TrEMBL record, chain A:
Species of provenance: Thermosyntropha lipolytica DSM 11003
This protein's GO CC annotations: periplasmic space
NCBIfam families: TAT_signal_seq
Name this polypeptide is given: Tat (Twin-arginine translocation) pathway signal sequence
Organism superkingdom: Bacteria
Positions of the Iron hydrogenase small subunit domain: 41-104
Source organism phylogeny: Bacteria, Bacillati, Bacillota, Clostridia, Eubacteriales
TrEMBL record, chain B:
Membrane topology: Multi-pass membrane protein
Entry's transmembrane regions: 20-44, 56-74, 125-146, 161-182
Subcellular localization(s) per the UniProt record: Cell membrane
Entries under InterPro entries matching the protein: Cyt_b561_bac/Ni-Hgenase, Di-haem_cyt_TM, FDH_cytochrome_b556_subunit
Record's protein name: Formate dehydrogenase gamma subunit
GO annotation terms (biological process): anaerobic respiration; formate oxidation; respiratory electron transport chain
Keyword Transmembrane recorded: yes
TrEMBL record, chain C:
Top-level taxon: Bacteria
One Pfam family this sequence matches: Fer4
Protein name per Swiss-Prot or TrEMBL: Ferredoxin hydrogenase
Source taxonomy: Bacteria, Bacillati, Bacillota, Clostridia, Eubacteriales
Keyword terms of this UniProt record: Iron, Iron-sulfur, Metal-binding
InterPro entries recorded: 4Fe4S_Fe-S-bd (IPR017896), 4Fe4S_Fe_S_CS (IPR017900), Cytosolic_Fe-S_CAF (IPR050340), Fe_hydrogenase (IPR009016), Fe_hydrogenase_lsu_C (IPR004108), Fe_hydrogenase_subset (IPR013352)
Chain ranges of the 4Fe-4S ferredoxin-type domain: 8-37, 38-68
GO molecular function ontology, one term from the record: iron-sulfur cluster binding
Amino acid sequence: MNIFVEKSGITRRQFFKGAGILAATAVFAGVLAKIGIDIYKASDKYIEKRIAGLYTLDEKMTIRKSHENPEIIQIYKEFLSPGEVRPLSEKAHHLLHTKYGNDIPKLITELTAHGGHHAA
Amino acid sequence: MSEIKGKVLKHSEQTRTMHWVHLICFIILGLTGIAFYFDIAGIVNLFGGEAAASDVHHWTGVIFTLAPLVYVLFNFERFAKFIDTITTFTKDDLGWLKTMGGYIPFIKAEHIPPQDKYNAGQKMLGLLVIAGCILMIVTGFPMWLLKHSMPPVLVWLTWKIHFWTAVILILAVLGHFFLAAIHPKSRVEFASMMIDGYVDAEYTSHHNAKWFAELKKAE
Amino acid sequence: MNTVATKEIINIDEKKCKSCDHCTSVCPTGAIQGRIGVKHYIDHKKCVNCGQCLINCPFGAITDISMVEKVKKALADPQKFVVVQTAPAVRVALGEEFGLEPGTNVKGKMFASLRKLGFDKVYDTEFTADLTIMEEGTELIHRIFAHAGVPGYEKEGPLPQFTSCCPAWIKYAEDKYPKILPHLSSAKSPQQMFGAVAKTYAAEKLGINPADMFVVSVMPCTAKKFECQREEMIASGFQDVDAVITTRELAQMIKEAGIDFRSLSNEEQADRLIGTSTGAATIFGVTGGVMEAALRTAYEILSGQSLGVVEFKAVRGRKPVREATVNIPVKELGKTVPLNVCIVTGLSHVDGVVEDVLAGRSKYHFIEVMNCPGGCINGGGQPIRRDTY
């Protein structure tokens, strides 16, 4: 019975095609990696831009320090600590401060017992 | 037509081994992938539950990548010849594609041009599988290993490519299986890849006339 | 008090989840369960509601609860006096929803569009950010005095003091490090301060019954939706902040109302009374911003001198954990005190800092913690970006 077998050895053309497709695959993977890295770098540029946006806004403001805000001075003088600018006043504590974790139930009882701001 | 006796060694042992390994990996990857997509508990449990199925998919992917790579490194000649064959398209191949090799019942095929070791359809499948596997690999590994550093848009892109390539590959491989194992005209080739590597010389002289002529010349 | 909507702010839509596992890498607290190929879900006990998973989900499968309908109902109700506050980070991101570059200042357009939407008063969270600095900064000064042994400050809390503006950080500290809570500034966040003063001070000045006042905040943040529902946030006698909408939801409302956002004037101002702000409040939206704002005020108050250059560039940047030392000549102590400060952005980096404090190894006086990488400008309620170039 005849057995037909391919002869061994390859032509130059076959070699270059074989090597070529391997090289092409490597180049393809490289190009994809480059695209991936570019996208990676661009993907969070917006954070930088928003940060810059807020810093620019800050620079444009005429008043740049909290304690110089005229309405802050007003709310202390007229409401939180009448007559003066005194943070951590009793009213400020009641309205502007809170408690955390296990202290919360007691705070809620206090707040509801006082009937809120009106009794404070 | 004259009677031709004998057999042709179509696929070497290494080629058959690689084909087997790749096939098994493909089935496992396909099944786990389908289970992930459709959230099919039955298949997931087949692979040992959610956590295990995820690992199975990843590590099978590693073998799926390494198997052809090792094959190419140790069988570069075979690989180079294969590439040469499947990337060479002549008038005869176009002629085959016009009639679809006579496989489609509604297309009249009075004369099918002589074919190489692989007919035009097989050549196209070969190219498709190579391109598909490369895409699966270059999208699969980043999704697994770089998931913590990839931006969302890249996860989205790699996922979409991985998914659609998988769909195309599964359909292509199903067609491949049908023609190579079930279709009465070509199922004799099944044994050549899956078992001993041999095909009848007579069959080859019809189906792969150009290749057979070369083999005869080499005798 | 309004009924609590829900405290499970962030949810994964199982139908849309593609099991890519990307969210687990951005979750700062490990609250998301799942792995590649497995549908993910959120453990709400561990979730700090920051929404980082939401803005980073490649498939848009994660959503936050919405209070937009509640806001629309209040706007349509003639009985309700609807007051709105907007966080600093919103004004440099809202424009993105209308095709503008990130960082574009749309402050005026934002106020104009809020007026067009029918809000009765358009105020600014930046006002209460300034108020926060007053309270939190003074608290810090008192703690430093207590630490230095100045008589009269014995009852003050321990050093270092942590900031308390970030609701994700607060929940994280309460859940994981109850022992660190005395170190947290007792000052509420600007959002909650606003609610409290709006329904008391502003209601009084405007002659509005606080029961009819409905306070809405526009936030870059999903955790603020949790914060406004906290049961203790009732100092005004009512739920201080009634509803929170995100930057995205405001953009949606503007679009639905058919307002041509880009053609609005950018010169509009917030209403007076509790709407004036300073640059110090503006930078609250950036990591290191609260620290810088506090330093500007603390330095001037402690030293009695005016700052020549108001910028503290040492606290700026995007590194997850940064530190700086500011030498402050303290008039009351008659010597220069080196103030060691630390800034953490990204909750996943806070553990080491907190554990150092608990072990007594920390050299810091003041520590700013913000959950989102980069600060509130990258919050879970901000426009979702998928930039590729």
